[in-house]
Amino acid sequence: MSDGARLVRRSLELLPPGDPVASPAADDASLGLNEGVDGAFPSALAAIADAVPRLNRYPGRGSDVLVSALAARHDVQPTQVVVTAGADAGIGYVCQAVLDAGDEAVIPWPSFPSFVRDTQKRDALPVTVPLRESRVDLEAMRASVTARTRLVFVATPNNPTGLVIPRDELIAFVAALPDHVLAVIDEAYFDYLDPVGRLDAIADIVRVGGDALVLRTFSKLYGLAGLRVGYAVGPTAVVAAIRKVQRGYDVGSLAQAAALASLADTAEVQRRRAANGVAVAALVSTLRAHGLEPLAGSVANFVLVDVGNDAGRLAAKLLEQRVAVQAGEVFGAPTALRIGAGSDADLALLDAALGVVLDNRGR
Ligand SMILES: Cc1ncc(COP(=O)(O)O)c(C=O)c1O
């Protein structure tokens, strides 16, 4: 019997399989996906409960209420904001809106794999630029821009390193890009950054007319990864193009309600930001206690640690001990693990698991 392979686009052979991946069990330590440690904000849980009786209704098309609230928050026009099913959907949409087959997207590497995959889904070409001493090499990225380049992606902080791109350098980099290139600035971990001196690419680049689309998400500090809600802010024509390619009812009503309610609670944002700093420091200490030295300077909610050639095997062994971490192969760091800062209980599990796994290493 035919499996139908002849019926699908040949170019999809480039893409990794999209098979379902088992989630860690509820009481396992989930440290592989950079999720927020805490759940939804109390205000979000209340908003979800309020919205549940109307689940028979379709959600607001285009998330208009949330769009208006975000536009007010960022002091931009509602026509500059689009709400998507996570920042990840925003990456796919901007590729659909901008890239034709054969176009190029310049992408630092290691970085977030969707930049590469969503470019390939368009039959466009990802041009990856290696990090230099673990940092995004803006000079080399600029040198990789050609007449076919339509997108340049960066994440700041970058995933998997957790390091930011210096504010002034990124502003100057975007300003110097040629006219035919849109910068996509992924700020998924923005909320963890110390507000003093941080780049706010919406205020510092988009609001002053820069050709950039900025991505943010409620999946991390806001604890809503399971609901899938994020947003993009950029030039009006880019946002209008994304709206054209976006699925009609992209973001569910509970997600819209929860995101809207979360926005108001700035005290909880500050509390979680401070708690994350403490949790990352505790994670670093735990790793060091086991002889591992994570890359210094992460300001996100995870660290990257080089463990040598058997990173994949080590991740599998940790999973047997009920600790999920991410092996670096998928984002171009084959000798590294990316490990999230979890709760105290998660960290205790990690500590115990590392004890078992590293003691038995090589057996
Ligand atoms: C840099 C970066 N961008 C985007 C995402 C996707 O986030 P979301 O859950 O909003 O789709 C992640 C998630 O890990 C990320 O690390």
Describe how the helices and strands are arranged.
Blueprint: E1 29-30, H1 42-51, H2 64-74, E2 81-84, H3 86-98, E3 104-109, H4 113-121, E4 125-130, H5 138-143, E5 149-155, H6 167-175, E6 182-186, H7 201-206, E7 212-217, E8 230-233, H8 236-245, H9 253-263, H10 266-289, E9 302-306, H11 311-320, E10 323-324, E11 326-327, E12 336-340, H12 344-359
Parallel strand pairs: 1-10, 3-4, 3-5, 5-6, 6-7
Antiparallel strand pairs: 2-8, 7-8, 9-12, 11-12
Helix pairs in contact: 1-9, 2-9, 3-4, 3-8, 10-12
What is this structure, in a nutshell?
This protein is α/β, with parallel strands linked by helices.
Strand portion: 5-15%
Quickly give the CATH architecture of the largest domain.
Answer: 3-Layer(aba) Sandwich
Based on Cα principal axes, name the global outline: globular
Helix percent reads 25-40%
The averaged pLDDT comes out at: 96
Number of strands: 12
Low-confidence stretches: none
Can you put this structure into words, describing what you see?
- The protein is an alpha/beta fold.
- It folds into two domains: 18-39 and 267-359, Aspartate Aminotransferase, domain 1; 42-263, Aspartate Aminotransferase, domain 2.
- The protein is 37% helix and 15% strand.
- It has helices spanning 42-51, 64-74, 86-98, 113-121, 138-143, 167-175, 201-206, 236-245, 253-263, 266-289, 311-320, 344-359; strands at residues 29-30, 81-84, 104-109, 125-130, 149-155, 182-186, 212-217, 230-233, 302-306, 323-324, 326-327, 336-340.
- The strands form three sheets. Strands 2-8-7-6-5-3-4 form a seven-stranded mixed sheet, with helices on both faces. Strands 9-12-11 form a three-stranded antiparallel sheet, covered by helices on one side. Strands 1-10 form a two-stranded parallel ribbon.
- Strand 5 (149-155), helix 6 and strand 6 (182-186) form a beta-alpha-beta unit.
- Helix 1 (42-51) packs antiparallel against helix 9, helix 2 (64-74) packs parallel to helix 9 and helix 3 runs parallel beside helix 4 (113-121).
- The relative contact order is 0.17.
- Bound molecules: pyridoxal-5'-phosphate (PLP).
- Pyridoxal-5'-phosphate (PLP) is lined by residues 34, 86-88, 112, 155, 159, 186, 188, 217, 219, 225, 230.
- The site of pyridoxal-5'-phosphate has 13 residues, from helix 3.
